[in-house]
Structure formats: C-alpha cells, structure tokens
Records
---
Amino acid sequence: MKFHHNKNFKYHELWNGHLHLAGDCNIDIDTLGKLFSDHSVPTCTGNFAIVWIGNDGWNFAQTDHLNTYPIWYKEDGSELYSLWSQVENIQRDDVFYAMRDLLYGQMTVGTRTPCQTVKRLQPDHYLDNGTQSRYRWSIEPRSGPPMSDWQDILIDVIDRNTNDGDVLFLSGGRDSTTIANVAHHLGKKLQYVHITRGKENPDTTACKEFAKNIGIEVNYIDPWQKTSTWNEHDYWHDSSYNPKRTCLNKLNSKSGISGELGVSESGSKKINPILQMPNINIEQLTNIWLTTLEARNESVASPLIHTDYTKDHRFYEFYEQAYKELIEYYESHWKHYSEIEDTKYLLKCALMMHQQDHESYRLHNYSQDVIMQWNHPLADYKWYDLIMNCDIKLKGVHYHKRYPYLVASRTWDWFDQTAWNYGGPRGLTQ
C-alpha cells in the first residue's frame, strides 16, 4: 500500500513496520507498535490520524472524532491519501454532489467522495486492510465530564492549542472572544484579526468594545480588497477559509487559530418536540435534517456544486440515490441509539450524530492547506467530549447563547462577556 502523506504526518520507523502519525493521541508510539504486532485496534482519543504499514503485510489507518486530519483511500486498498489534491484520474461521482446539494452544499455523510473509486474514512472509524469499521461511538448516552471540570478543560484546551505569534480570528462573537479571554489571561501573545469591509455593524462594534475592555490590539482587515490565488474548488466545504488565509498572508504569518466546533449548537424550537415523538421514523428524521440546516447563499458555494444546479435535478436519479443513502446512513445510527430508553439522551444523540459530520466537514479546508498551520482549541477532543455529551439544556441548543462558556467561566471575574450583549452568530462580517 502506498500512503501519500503531508506535512502534518510524522514518520516513525519501528521494528515491525512504518508508522505515520498526525496530531496527538493518548497512546505512545511503542505501545501502538505492540498493538499493531497483534493486529489490535487501539481505542485512541485526541486529535489525530494514524497510518500503519506493517512488515507482515497488515495495513491500518484510523482517524479521530472530527477527521481533523482526513484520510481517503482507493477501494482496492492500493493507496491512501492525506490531501484531496493528491487524488488523480477522478471519475466524477454525481451521487456525492447530489447529496451535497440535498444538504445545502455543506457536507455529505458516509464514505462517498467526488471520485467514484475513492472513499472517505469517517470520524471514529478505522481501516483494516481496506475494510472500514467503527471503533467507538464518541457521542454517548451520558452527560460528559462533570461541570466542576469545565473550567479546567477550557483552560487546558486553549493553553495547549495556542502559541505566541499565532493569529486568532476575532469575529466579536462568543467562540472567538472566549478563546481570546483565556489566552490573554494565560499571557499568550497572540495576533488578533477582525475581518471587515469597513462598515459599522454589531460584529465590529462588539469586537472593538471587547478589545478595549481586556486591553488587546486588533488588526481590522478587508481581505476582499486583494485577489486570492487559493483554489477552493478542490475542497469540500464552502467555509470562510479563503478570507482567513488571505489575512494570514497579509500579516506574513503561517499559523492561525480558528473557533471551529465551539459549542456546536444545533436544532430549533420545532425540531426538539418532533424528535421526541414516540413514533418518529428514520425518513421523518432525515427530512428534518434536510429542511432545517442553515441554508447557504449560493454565491459563496463552490461552483462544483451549483453550476449544474437546476430544479429538474430534484427528480434526477442521482438525487434519488443520494436520498436513499442518507436514510440508510441515519438508520444505522438510529438503530444504535434507539436502544436508549431515556428520551433526553436519545434526543441529544439524534441531534449530535448529525452535528458530528457537519463539524468534521468544517475542518476540511484547514487540513488541506500544505502551507498554513492551524490550531482549533475548541475542536480538541476534551472539549468535544464535553460539548457533544453534555445535557442539551445546558447547551441552550437552539438559542445560540453558548451557555457552556458562561458555565465554565462562572467564577472568573476577568472573563469579559461583551459578546453576550450583542446578537446571535452572523459569520464573517460582510
């Protein structure tokens, strides 16, 4: 098997094979080597990807809870890819694009990719000599770490995932100002950027007020003034990555910090009671996902998704197949979680199983940049475990209040709450 690695993967030559490890996991190199000698699957936690090429012919790959470092593989098992740009001779898979269109151009689920012969290794899954299987359910019927630990977890994930000189994109919202609050308190010397077109708006007002209150300087940059050479068309999510990358270039920086995952609020006042209906079926559940996702403006979506978009395609065979696969995918999850008798936990798992896929797609652009280095403090496994498994009432799941930050910071008199004085999330300032 041939592995196409990138800068995120560190190579380790062991006595029984070759290990490529991206990020950090909770199992040391020597222990991994011993496990792989027995063809055992490690139950790793952390933000990582593993590729093992054994001297005995056993090959193995594994990714974390959000595909922080995604892996794709040929169906025949001959090649693994760490960057989508490494895939050659692409035979377009129209079902993939139909599924993306059904999901508002944001994501897909399952193993499909834009190429018919290449598959995606999913979150919480591993690849054993070409066969993909799940090694854990990181969304569980439990309440996650106790609230008494939330402060320590928030400080730890921000401390470990921020470094002096990194550029933090400060929108003025609750995710980015939480990172800034803690990093500044820890004495981290970050650079701060607020993306703006120069017009007064709640985001910029909140950012200026916050920066004054805690005593930091912010660069206000309009990245749309300069033409970008970044090719977004090869990547899978029409995110805000391009303007962020332009800002890093303008500051001659190679390292950025994002607020991805955050509190991962999902759902609506309409969804929650519907999900708790005793006789809800998987097709109803799938339609809930399809009709309640945040719709994106087509002008910012990838041309690969929308150049061939017409109403007639709604009745095209690719859409029928994509819809069928969505139902089958959610059904497989629902069967696992439906054994939960507690309606509260069942509701949480139903919401979060979809959110896990959505959040993993949001990280794709960051991982595919071979030049820039990114840290995602709020996508760290410890924070992910807290957010995905805590009680949905504590999350204020459909109010966008970001309650867990307030819970974690409840005894910190230095934590500035300016962002909570303004409206809900708006994304990049336009």
---
Amino acid sequence: MIEDLKGDESWRLFRIISEFTEGFDTLGGVNFAISIFGSARTPRTDHYYKRARKIAAKLAKQEFAIITGGGPGIMEAANKGAFESKGQSIGLNIELPFEQVANKYQTVSMDFRYFFARKVMFVKYSMGYVCMPGGFGTLDEFFEALTLVQTSKIYSLPIVLFGSDFWGGLVEWLRTRLIQQGVISIDDFNLITVTDDVDEVVEIFTKHRRWKQEQIHESNIELLRENYGDEFQPEWTEILERICKPRGIQFTK
C-alpha cells in the first residue's frame, strides 16, 4: 500500500503513525482523567476563566488528571487549576496559524500536527468532558463526544456543559427544532448535563468514577474466574478491592 503512495503522502502516513504512537506511550498510564474544553480567547479576568480554574483545582484534589488543548484562555485556566493543586495537568497542543500558544501550567505536554490524532487522545484517555463557553473547536469536541456516546462507539461518559447562559440557547434549539424534526430522541438529553455549579461538576465525575471502578472490578473478578476456575482463591477478591479497584487497574486476557 505504501508503495502506491507518492512522496509527501507516504511521509505524512509515518508522521500520523508517530503521533498516535507517542500519544499512546505518553498517556498510557493516565487513569481517571477529565477533559476541559473552552475558548482560547477567554481573558483571565472573565468569570468562566475563574470557574474553569476552580473546577480543575477541585477535580485535581479528588485525584483526577486534567486534560486540555494546552493553549491560552479556558485551557490555561484548567491547566493552572490542576497545576496549583499538585495534580496531573496534561496539555495536548496543536499547531495552528493563530491563537495556539502553549500555556506554562502543563506537567505533561504533547504537540500534535493533526487534529484527528489529538481527538483520539481526548476520547481514549478521558472519562468525562467539561465544555466551558467556547467557539467552533469546543462545539466540535462536544458534538463528537455526544455522537460517539449516543451511537455506543465509546463507553458512556458524562458530558457537562458549564454555563447555562451560554449553552441554554443551543440546548433549547436541540430540544425544539431537532426533536420536532424527529432526528434525535428525547432520551438523548440524558447524555448531557447543563450546570452552573462547580460542586455538581465534581460530584458528577466522582460518582461516575465509582461506577467505573465497580465495573472494572467486576470484570477483573470474572476474568480471573474464567482463567483459573476452581483454583480461584477468595483472598484474591480482597487484594483486588484493596489495590486494583481504587486505581482502576484493568486486567486483559
């Protein structure tokens, strides 16, 4: 296949593979991360900048990693909140002709040339999304995650729209125009939470983490029983409860 590609196209394929490889290697050890999206143009004096910083700080104190696009504005606020709370602050930076300047509050920083490779990292290593007010990029991430969850292409994850004044009009349009047209189901709105409450955001993700830990724990026990049958020892369950379950360690066949 590669022989059929010409010049730059073949090298582009290698660059794409290298971005996926580096991303998987760098982020492979990340557990229970929340991605926070929002405008790169939001000033530091803005209400939503301060909210994003507080959300990230509170999540980091609950031992969640924070993932952003690595740039200024809301992304900087989220990275800063996590960084100041001694949490894991991850920035997935992208090469752009304007706006994208890496913020200084990243404990893990990666650079991407391709949006699609970067998107995979957000989806693969996040257990939830917070969408602060933002532009096309934020809308893109929101609707892509919503589509993937709605079509069961990824495991269910909470999608939080923070800022009812900002998101209310869009949600109302979805509820009226799209429902009236019959192109979505009313049940699809169960996938979205709109809130102005920082503590509610934290509670949504801590609750989801507990659920996810339980799912992983039950899967591990089932896998051990399948592999070991009558040799399965009751004390193994205690070890799983104490060591693996809190960290979300998942066994593979």
---
Amino acid sequence: MPKKTRTKSARRAATAKKSAKSKRERTKAKLGSIPKRPDAERRLRQASKAARVFKVLELIQGRGRWNAEAIAEELDWDVRTIYRDLNALELAGVPWYFDRQQGCYRVRPWYHFPAINLTPDELLDQATATAVTSVPGLKVGSGTQATTAKMVVGSSDEKARLLADAQQLVTALDLKLADHSQHQDIIRTVQWALVEQKQLSGKYESPYHDKPVKLTLHPYRLCLTGQAWYLIARAADSEQPKTYRVARFASLRAIEKPATVSEDFDLKDYFGNAWSVYRGRETYDVQIEFTKEAARLVTEITWHHTQEIKKRYKDGRIVLAFRVDGLEEIVWWVLGWSGRAKVLGPEKLRQMVVEQLETALAMNER
C-alpha cells in the first residue's frame, strides 16, 4: 500500500514538473516574439527619465512654492507623472515632505543631494565653462547652464555661492563666432546620430549649387573650427568623407540605418596641415616677415600647429614660418596684416596677396 501511494505522488510530481516546464517554454517563446528595444534607445529613455526627476528635485529644493499641479504646468507633464517622480525621489532617499501651511513640497533643509566633491578650482572651471558656452556660437541647447544649476542645488551653501559669484564675474564676449542660435536642433541631431551611430538625411545649401542638395550621410565627427561648427561625414554614394558647414543644412534628421565609419579615421590626419577648415592638395612652406610693431601681437597667438619663429632681427622684426596644405585660406589671414607683413615665400602666395590688394585699391578709388 505505501509503495502504491509513493508511485501516485511521484506521478503527480512529474506531471506538475512537466506542466511548469511547458509553461516556462510558452512564456519564453512569447517574450522572444517581442522585439527588444535597442540599447541606445533604452539608455536615452533612462537618461530622459533621470533628467525629469532631477528637474522636479531642482524645483522643490528651490525657493518657489511648488505643488504637483504647479510642477506639472511648469514642466508641461501630467500630474500622475509628477507623483511617480516624487515617489522615485523618496525611494532614492530624498527627504521631501508636503508643507500644508504653504501648500507646496519642500526638502528638509539639512539635505543636499549627493554630488561630486568638486574643489573650489573645479567649481571655478565649471563657472567659466558656463560663461563660455553661453556665447551664441558655442551654445548648444541649454549649454552647461542646466548642469551648473543642478550642481548649485546639490552643493553646500558655500559652494553654491562660489558658483553664483563666479558666473556673475566671468563673461565671454564677442568671440567672432558664427551665430548658430537657429541651428541648435541640427547640432543636437548630429550629436545623437554620432552617439547612436545612425545615418543622417537632409538638404544642404552648398555655395556651388543653385538649389539645396539632398544628402544621406554617415557622420564621422562634429567639430568647432574656423569660428563655426562643421560636420565631417561621408555621403552614402561616396568613399571619402567631406566637410559640411552646419549652418548650411536646411534640414537634417537621423534615420534608422546604421552609420559606417572607418575604424582608422583620425580627425588630425583628415585636416592635415589645412590652415583652417579646407585642406588643399599641395603643401607649401610659408615664410612671412612682420614689422617690429606687429611682432609681439602676432606671436601672442598660436595661429597654426606648425607655427615657428624662423628668425629674430635686432630691430624687432621677426620671420614666422608655417607648413600648410593649400593657400586659399592663409591668404586672407595675411591680408589682415596688410602694411605690417611681407610674404617671403612662396611666390604664389605673394602674388595672391598682391592681386587682392590691387582689387581692393581699384574698388576704393574715387
């Protein structure tokens, strides 16, 4: 009798085990049919959620009066999302509470959100970066201002005052950069396409075409050079990358196609010895003599990575030497020193300078 009972129990256990295994297999098959979200998209959503939660913390830890409805209106979200964000803050250990007298959320005054322990010098560097990236040509999105504001919220009173004072006292003015205030969305699109390794599609207003050119691009790099933002990218129908000025894109969007970028691409090798942005095919050794009055001014700045003081005269004159790929850009720089600089070589550059000066004289004759 006991033997028979054990046999029934074993059969029931085997049946239950088989049923559980079958259920797991069905669940696994069902989950396998659901397309997985790309890692880049998942990271982007997580970052967006984290930024939203930090924004709520920034508001309730500030000086204003914020209830759920006011926060939702300020950030253009629904109230239920705000409650979820408040719960996330509570789970993270942020001691917020609802002040019934004031009718708003508050954070306990003794609490500061854990932040990187920055030194005073590092805080000054952050304030300087905030000032510099506020300049029209450098500002992309909110620049570093949003980051600095979050650092103020998470810092001690002393460090917060240092950041605030430094931002008021450090300013960047008139850097002679191209104004990209109308192209911030395009710059941001390029940034995300580079990070997520996606192709770009858009219309480019080339100075060599009457109408905008439709392009599909594999983005390589985004760089600030020659006083403007440039995209280094390879057209889908080309084997070599080219330089595109960001301000000339009439439209640009990322497409769901993977970008292909050569693993051995090097930005310094790409630009070579170009004077600024566009690299010529022929290399030239350039020597320019500067007057005594211009010598100190011209040597205060490194104009090119090949720059070298070739000779110093007793009367204060100097000779600067450069090695450049192409003369089309350096000629305009030389013209800016008219009356204070003499081209010693090459002869082709000297002739280019003379031609431009003669044209300028003819245009300004009365």
---
Amino acid sequence: MWYVIQTTTGSEETLVCLIKEMISEEFYKECFYIKRECARKEGDRWHIHLGTMFPGYLFVDTDKPKEMYMELKKVPKLTKLLKEEGETFLAVSEEEQRFLEEIQDRQHVVRRSLVQLDADRKIISADGPVGRYLSHIVRQRIRKRYVLIERELLGEKRNILFGIRLDEDKLADD
C-alpha cells in the first residue's frame, strides 16, 4: 500500500536518497516522488525537462506502515508525515493509487500527452494520461503546452498540471 510523506518543496530527491540510505528495504518496497515532463519553447524548438509533479510529496510503498513510520522518525530533514486521526501516516486510497499508477511510467515520470485540436484549438482527443481524463480538464493552455485536470487526491480536490504536445512540435534535439 502507498503512503504519503510531506517534505520541503525542492528536497524530494534528497529525501528519497536519505531514506534509501538510512532505512532497510525490509520496511518498504519502494520510495519515490513523481516527476513530469515539462516543455519550454526557445525559438521554434521545444526543450523538455523533468519537474516535480507533486512538489513536497514523496510516496512510499510498504506493508509495514507502523514500523516504517518509526524508521522515518530517524531520518533528518523529514519535516512531517501526513497523518489522519488514528493512523500512522496518510494512506493513499486504492482509487488514488490506481490514478497515480495510470498516469506515470515505471520510472515515475508522467509523460506529455499527444493531443489533437479542433478548429477553435480546443482539445478533442488525446493519448496518455490526458486522454484517460479528458472529461476532467478544467483549463487548457495550448500555447504553454499544459492542461489542468481536476481530481480528488490526498483528501482534497486538486488541479493537477499535465504536459501536452502537438504533432507539429519540434524538439530541441531533433
């Protein structure tokens, strides 16, 4: 089962490394944060880089939440664990975990989705994560190559940013 650890925005990679270094794998299967492909245009080309999908949040897959919680207390720089009343730390619901698994690849990266537009530049179809949640789009910024999808996640409604791409996009390394 997945659980959430909250940390300082920007320190996700450092904390994942610390956890892997300091906590035995007998307490967890995997510790990670989810990244997303971001696009930035320079001239007529798009540069792709990785950003953090959920800044300040790590995910840990464990069958031993109580023991893992105690081990995490030993890790410096760990700001806080998301807690619910009576729980060790916040469990990701099955539905939320399924959503997160659907949008990312094995390297925990959410790839940009190829979209098709109508004459008014509205998205009519898409592949990848955006295609699965097309009806949940609350905002689209075609020029900036992203959409916002509204979704219940970690106990609250959130607008989640997803990268998009068009057939005509030229990448910097093409």
